[in-house]
Amino acid sequence: MFFWAIFDESSLKELFMTPRILDIKTQVERENTLLDCAHAFIQRESIAALTIDKLVKELPFSKGTIYNHFNSKEDILLGLCNRGMSILAELFNRARQFDGLPREQGLAIHFAYMLYAKLHPTLFMLVLTAKTSNITDKASASKQEEHLLLEGKLIGPIVSIFQESLDRNEISPPMPMTLEQLAFACWSLSFGTNALLLQNIEHCGTRSNLVVERELINNVNLLFDGFQFQPLTNDFDWTNTISRLKSITFCKEIDNLKSRGHILAI
Amino acid sequence: MFFWAIFDESSLKELFMTPRILDIKTQVERENTLLDCAHAFIQRESIAALTIDKLVKELPFSKGTIYNHFNSKEDILLGLCNRGMSILAELFNRARQFDGLPREQGLAIHFAYMLYAKLHPTLFMLVLTAKTSNITDKASASKQEEHLLLEGKLIGPIVSIFQESLDRNEISPPMPMTLEQLAFACWSLSFGTNALLLQNIEHCGTRSNLVVERELINNVNLLFDGFQFQPLTNDFDWTNTISRLKSITFCKEIDNLKSRGHILAI
DNA sequence: ACCTGAACACCGTTCAAGT
DNA sequence: ACCTGAACACCGTTCAAGT
């Protein structure tokens, strides 16, 4: 029995072209299902092991349909990367609202970045992957736009903290530096620390005694002291700041880490 | 006319099993030819575009023979990565021998790393790629051994500088730090700065005013000041150090950069 | 109109056949 | 013994056929 035998062309056209109210909602839902699935997969296996064929086996729709939502595998990865950056942006905003001195908020930002890297290692790594391979080239224009927008949302709170500390005369680097340069110095240090320490440490004999949370806090304090960011490391009780970050600002994230068996070394 | 018709089995065996003196030399030569070729290719195109088929088209031997020298594509990439690390280790040794204070030598190390990243961007990126994808897993045991050995050779001069500055009482971080932690703080900052700034900057609106050589020197000075590494940024004529690095220690590398149209902003 | 999965072009790796 | 390239299994992407 054939479909075409039941309907004539005009009624078919009517059936198919009838605008369905649920369509847009379904579209978004499907995109999320796919990203959820891809995220779970690369968390379980690895980015390298991700395959469209393997992905489609776990999805309620077919291979062809994937390409109605994402124009390439790289588009999926950038979509996932952007999702991670949204999460990170929310953490940065909370850090910016920490009730305390600008330097405490600056520490909070780095603390947030480290928590993010520990909570979502695969999403953190995805930014790295996006930088090394030419993911951004193959991805869709819309995803690339979103990516740039999110980069701005991440830089925002950092620049704003430095602006405030300059206004309050609480920072005076040994050489003239723009807000952008100050923010960039922080970003490089944090990025480098997380990237180098997040990798499978067991392989690397030389880094065996390093714990990311301790090194991160140390490195940030060193850099901030270099900025002459007041109050200096030894002129303030930073353990209180960190315990408030742990018990109040990021308590949900800390609980999440604990439930997965990770205990912070600080 | 068949080969087998001319020789009987024993004379064939004799012909083939005769130890050829050139064999080992040819083996090494072929490996180098392949690595040269792969290097040129990813410099011209990209790591992602590298294909065994494309590679073999430019080589004087066939696809199967490649697998007599390298057990996988990842093995080739790790081989190339190791080659880069050898070059870098040589630069670090020269930096360590810079005639000056430990802090000057520390600056020289970072300067060397930046020069390396600028001179061999694809080799620098290969370390990043090796870290993100599981290249190290698929590569041969011998290449992995070599990789760890080279990591040690890179850390060596850095640790040695810090040991000397501790002996001379020229360093006193605001918190207790091991030699390993000191070296790691430097590595993270340098790695992060190079990695973030080496990427195609035109894409990224927020980083448009940043020049890697200037930011690198700034960031290192900030971190060293955080270490209380004597003499501090504003207590010494560092421009003299940098001009000696440019005109003496790394003059060959600077010339090389110039010949390619790169002019350092410092 | 939308979904499907066979089909396609291309990839890394192997191995029987040639020398 | 060593080299070769056809053959294989698998990949991302497309598109004719089905509904």
Helix content of chain A: over 70%
> Whole-number radius of gyration of chain A?
23 Å
The parts of chain A where pLDDT drops under 50 for at least 5 residues are 1-22
Rounded mean pLDDT of chain A is 88
Largest sheet of chain A: none
**Percentage of residues in DSSP E strands of chain A:** under 5%
Count of discrete alpha- or pi-helical segments spanning 4 or more residues of chain A? 14
**Helix and strand run of chain A:** HHHHHHHHHHHHHH
Separation of termini of chain A?
69 Å
The tally of structural domains of chain A comes to 2
Q: Which structural class matches the secondary elements of chain A?
A: mainly alpha
Which word captures the global form of chain A? elongated
The assembly state of the depicted protein chains is homodimer
Instruction: Report the count of strand segments of chain A.
Output: 0
CATH topology of the largest domain in chain A: Tetracycline Repressor, domain 2
Q: Name the pair of protein chains with the most residues at their interface, and give those residue counts.
A: A-B, 54 and 54 residues
Structure description:
2 copies of one chain form a homodimer. Chain A is an all-alpha fold. Chain A folds into 2 domains: 1-69, no CATH class; 81-259, Tetracycline Repressor, domain 2. The first copy, chain A, is built from 14 helices and no strands. Chain A has helices at 3-6, 9-17, 23-44, 52-57, 63-69, 73-96, 102-119, 121-132, 135-138, 141-167, 179-198, 212-226, 238-249, 251-259. The longest helix of chain A is centred in the middle third of the chain and has 27 residues, at 141-167. The N and C termini of chain A lie far apart (69 Å). Residues 1-22 of chain A have low confidence and may be disordered. Chains A and B meet through helix 8, helix 10, helix 11 and helix 12 of A and helix 8, helix 10, helix 11 and helix 12 of B. Chain A binds a DNA duplex (19 and 19 nucleotides) through helix 2 and helix 5.
